[in-house]
Amino acid sequence: MFAEENGLKGDPRLQAISQAIRVVPHFPKQGIMFQDITTLLLDHKAFKDTVDIFVDRYRDMHISVVAGVEARGFLFGPSIALGIGAKFVPLRKPRKLPGEVISEKYSLEYGTDCLELHVGAVQPGERAIVIDDLVATGGTLSAAIRLLERSGAEVVECACVIGVPDVKGHCRLIGKPLYVLVEPREVDKCSRGSTCVNTKSFDCVSHQGWGG
Amino acid sequence: MSAYRDEDPRLHGIKTKIRVVPHFPKSGIMFQDITTLLLDPKAFKDTIDLFVERYKGKNISVVAGIEARGFIFGPPIALAIGAKFVPLRKPKKLPGKVISQEYILEYGRDCLEMHVGAVEAGERAIVVDDLIATGGTLCAAMDLLERVGAEVVECACVIELPELKGRERLNGKPLYVLVEYLEV
């Protein structure tokens, strides 16, 4: 579900968060409008608001595990874990975690990938949330859920900064509730227009071709 | 300098939570595993607090973190001191225009990248990673920041392996670490 439909309707923080995310067309390949959260991390207030919204949601839900998907889930998960007093558990690509692991394969558009979790990081009965920057097909999140459930944890919810509007489809795919702050943006909607700060520092891709 | 010598009472808890995994990723390396530190909310919070106490109020506007374990410690520090967080990544991960810095590994080379425009000239920055070994990665990180005109105030790591002399490789830049690992 979107934050706006779940208690945060009209919350001005959400608009600022959405606007702080940069859209990079055709990355990593033609046709993909990449949602770049690195610009959100440059905006201290918007970044703090992002973390605060998740902390406010999960603080009183008796969550003891925040699992973050490498690598962009690492940018948000630890701060949320610290904010709610939970442990942070990294879910990593193969051969990165040094100790004994359990692995879960998942499908990509072409081929498969794999996510790993340290044995013993999560105890049976623990309540967990999974964090990533964005949910698209849900394949990575599904693998994350399976790893946590194999360890005996209860996955309470998956939380992402960005998610596509087809929320119902995702809930069915993953089987778990999904909480998302904002939708992906299209390139032609940089709302700051000619006063966009990005024209000074970044190649604001929203303005390429607009003469901004 | 290292907090270790100041004997802050929180340091013992932090050090005991770091797991040493022998012969990873290859024979002879005693890998310093910080994931076990992250499983202890108090010890993880103490780790962040020690860095925040050091850098708050020092006009640091940039916390740069090295992929991927620097992403775990850097953002909480940045949020607490009011700075932006800048990820320094392996090639082809950052989607926008980047600058790149090559560095030498034991066998071969690697490369670190930073988004153009993320850091402005004159900004005061710290670089964060979980561990300093030979210092090669931290040097590349500092080079990226200095190339865009930032001032690297200090490098900050949870762990130092002093026997690998990374501190000397930092060209006089200060290094702050919480714990040292010495092979007995």
TrEMBL record, chain A:
Gene Ontology biological-process entries: adenine salvage; AMP salvage; purine ribonucleoside salvage
Q: Which reaction does it catalyse?
A: AMP + diphosphate = 5-phospho-alpha-D-ribose 1-diphosphate + adenine
Q: Which residues form the Phosphoribosyltransferase domain?
A: 42-165
Major subcellular location class: cytoplasm
Under the heading Gene3D superfamilies, the entry gives: 3.40.50.2020
**Coiled coil location:** none
Keyword field: Cytoplasm, Glycosyltransferase, Purine salvage, Transferase
**Is Cytoplasm included in the keywords of this UniProt record?**
yes
Pathway in which this enzyme or protein is active: Purine metabolism; AMP biosynthesis via salvage pathway; AMP from adenine: step 1/1
Subcellular localization: Cytoplasm
Q: Which GO terms describe its molecular function?
A: adenine phosphoribosyltransferase activity
Cellular-component GO terms for this entry: cytosol
Q: What is its EC number?
A: 2.4.2.7
Q: What class of enzyme is it?
A: transferase
Name the domain of life this protein comes from: Eukaryota
How the protein assembles, per its UniProt entry?
Homodimer.
Annotated family: Belongs to the purine/pyrimidine phosphoribosyltransferase family.
Q: What is this protein called?
A: adenine phosphoribosyltransferase
Q: What gene codes for this chain?
A: LOC107463321
Automatic annotation (TrEMBL), chain B:
Domain Phosphoribosyltransferase spans what residues? 41-166
The record's SUPFAM superfamilies line, in alphabetical order, gives: PRTase-like
Keyword NADP annotated = no
EC no.? 2.4.2.7
GO cellular component term, pick one? cytosol
Question: GO BP, one example?
Answer: purine ribonucleoside salvage
**What Pfam families does the record tag this protein with?**
Pribosyltran
Q: What is its main location?
A: cytoplasm
Q: Which reaction does it catalyse?
A: AMP + diphosphate = 5-phospho-alpha-D-ribose 1-diphosphate + adenine
Subunit text: Homodimer.
Q: Which family does it belong to?
A: Belongs to the purine/pyrimidine phosphoribosyltransferase family.
Q: What is this protein called?
A: adenine phosphoribosyltransferase
Q: Taxonomic classification, please? A: Eukaryota, Viridiplantae, Streptophyta, Embryophyta, Tracheophyta
